[in-house]
Amino acid sequence: QVCAQLCQRPCYCPWVPPHCPHGSPLVLDGCGCCKICARRLGEPCNFLHVCDQSQGLICDYNSVPAGTGATCNFEESEEGCEVNGRVYRDGEVFQPSCKLQCHCLDGGFTCVPLCQEDVRLPTLDCPYPQRVEVPGKCCPEWVCETQDQHLRLDSGAASSLLSSPCQAWGTEWSACSVSCGIGFSTRVSNQNQYCRLETQRRLCIARPCPALPAAALVSQ
To answer: Which residues form the VWFC domain (predicted)?
Structure first.
């Protein structure tokens, strides 16, 4: 009955197929007549405007209040990852920020930093290296400050620097070594009793690890 009301025969389609946005392929509409742009994850859908089945999407009428239509969503059996309120499909590579690249796999995700975690030690020509955020750039960069600049920026520490032969220096803590559970982050610092540069570690928790499926626990 729905087909009889919405689908007309013969088909009358535009001469020029629509220009689809990136990631939305051309597919046949629900009547099997005209080429349309497949709806993507989270976009509204109905019998005519179908979802991108190549991405494992279906028109989900349960994800929205009754009477307000439907949206494209993954099938319930499809594994996915939810990050910052957005769902990514299993196997998808995504960037939650310009500093991280993540991979969704089996309901969890792992991330690697895109910014270099290099360490710059003090030298004669750069005695006060500082890693700072640069406007318009994603990753922080190393800059060299003179002693006068260093003392002006931190006037409270000036007296301690003058009275103490050991000038405190250290890098920022690195990202956590794991994407979930307990890991560790590192930094290089001379804040110890010998005033020597050393690599220091501390525990960190990125996020709780997803629970293993019951079937996997039984198989173990």
So the answer is: 79-145
Helix boundaries (H) for 40-184: 147-153, 158-163
Q: CA 20, CA 45: separation in Å to the nearest integer?
A: 15
Position 172: which residue type?
E
User: 111, 105, 112: which is closest to 210 by C-alpha?
Assistant: 105
DSSP letter, residue 17? -
Per-residue burial over 157-167, b if 16 or more Cβ lie within 10 Å, else e, is eeeeeeeeeeb
Q: Which two tokens stand for residue 163?
A: 């009275």
pLDDT for 114 equals 85
Matching residue, tokens 């020509």: 125
DSSP designation for 153: H
Main-chain phi, psi angles of 40, to 5 degrees: -100, 180
Strand partners, 112: 101
* DSSP letter (8 states) at residue 66: T
Q: pLDDT, tens digit, for every residue of 129-166? A: 888 888 888 888 888 876 555 444 444 443 443 344 56
Domains defined along the chain, listed by start: 1-76 (4.10.40), 81-113 (2.10.70), 119-144 (no CATH), 168-207 (2.20.100.10)
Q: How far, in Å, are 17, 21, 126 from residue 51 at the CA level?
A: 17, 14, 57
